[in-house]
Amino acid sequence: MDITGSLSVIGYGLAAIGGGIGVGLIFAAYMQAVSRQPETQRIIQPMLFMGFAVVEALAILGFVLALL
Questions:
Q1: Domains of the chain by range and CATH?
Q2: The whole model's pTM is what?
Q3: pLDDT at residue 35 above 80?
């Protein structure tokens, strides 16, 4: 049995799964916080987008490292 291919594809798949889970957790926490205290939406929303940007940057970094 001869297996050919690149293991970096598996690494990027894992990075994409991690990013997806991270974004899901961030938005779930945001929805819970806003539903409990709607008046804090303007305070929490910038933190939401900052966390989203960090998680997506890590997913893109995983993609770049998979190509190397």
A1: 7-67 (1.20.20.10)
A2: 0.75
A3: yes
